[in-house]
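Practice problem: BIG2 domain-containing protein
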Amino acid sequence: MTRSLESMLDFFLREKGELVQINSVKQLVLIQDATNTIQMTDEKIIRVATPLHTGDIVDYRYERYLITSQVDQNEKLCRGRMKKCNQRLALNWSGQVKWFDAVVEARTFSTETGKVISMPEGNILVSLQDNTDTKGITLSQRFYMTHQPFKIVGIDRTMNGIILLSCTLDSINTAYDDVENNIADRWKYETAHTYALHINQGTIAHVLLNETIQLNVSATDNGNEIANPAITFISSDPNVVSVDHQGQVMGIALGQASITAKLTYHPTVLSTIEMRVVETGTHFYAIAITGNPMLKTGQSASYVSHIYDHGVEVFDQSVEWSLQNQDDSTPIMGSITASIGNSVTVKAGSSSGANNKALVLTATLISDPSITIEKTIILKNLF
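Answer key — C-alpha cells:
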C-alpha cells in the first residue's frame, strides 16, 4: 500500500474493511492473502489503524490467526503478517492441563535465503503467543498432536510476543497418556474411568399388556458399582412400550420395541433390551448374571443368576453353570469352586499370561435349556 493510499485508510476501512477480533477486541481491518501461490500454511497480510503487535491473536472468519511477523507501523497504519493456527495443543503441568492455539509447521521460510527449509522427519516448529501461561513451558515437556506424541527440545524466546518451540517425535506412554484426547501424562495425575452399564434382564424381556415391570440396571466405574447413577431411558416406540425416567416399563400395545438406557453424563455408555408386549398366559423366562466383570489372577468372586418371568424376578427356577475361555482355547484359565442354588464362585487361574484375556460364565435354565445367558469376565494380573 503506497503512502497516498495510506492517507485514505479510513475510507478503505469503511468501504472494504472486515470486522475481526484482535485479542478479543473488535476492530475494522483490511486483510489480503500474503501470496498469490498456494502454500502449506494459510498466511495473510493485515492492516489496521490501531496498534498491532507480534503475537496478537486475530479471530477472522471463524478461524484463529497469530501475528507472526514484526509489525510495520507509521502514524496512520499498522501492518503485519499472520498465520492461521492449524493446531490446538494441550500442555500438562502436574495435572493442570491448558490448551493453546498454535501454528505448527514441518518446514519454514528462511528470511535470509528466501527459501523454504525442510526440517528433519519427525521434527516440527510450533509458534505460540508469548503470555503468562506459555512462559511456564519447559524443555522435555510433552504434548500430543493428531494422536502422536512430541517432546520439546528447543525454546526460542528472542522474538517479542512469540515463543518458538522446536519439537521432535516422542514415544507413546500407554500407562499415562490419553492418546484419544491428545493429552500427555493425563493418567499420571488423574484416574482413568472405564464406565459400563447393564440392563440385568438379558437382551429380551416381556411385559404384559397394560402392565408394568421395573428394569434392573447397574452401572460400574473401573469395575466398581456406582451408587444411584444418573440414567436416561428411551423407548424406540412409545406407542408400544413406554418407559419413565426411573426405568419403569409399561406395555401399551401388542408388539415390540427397544428400551435403551444411557449414563446421563456419559451417553456413549449404554445398554439396550428388546421389550415384547404379550397377553397373559405364557411364561417368558430370561436370565441375568450379576457380579464383578473383572477378576485378578488367583482371586475368587461370586456371581448370582436372577431369573425373570415377564420381566418380574421369580425364585422357583434354577440354573446350571459352565465356564470356558472366551476364545474357546484350553486349558480353561479359571474354575468353578462352589455352586449353591443360583449363585456360583469363580476362581481365576494364576497364570500371568491370562492378563487381558477373558472367561465366559454361562447360566442355563434347567427347566428350559434353550434359555441361557453369558457373562464375560476380564482377567487381570494381580500386580
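Discussion: The CA atoms of residues 193 and 222 lie 6 Å apart. Students who identified this feature from the C-alpha cells alone can consider the problem solved.
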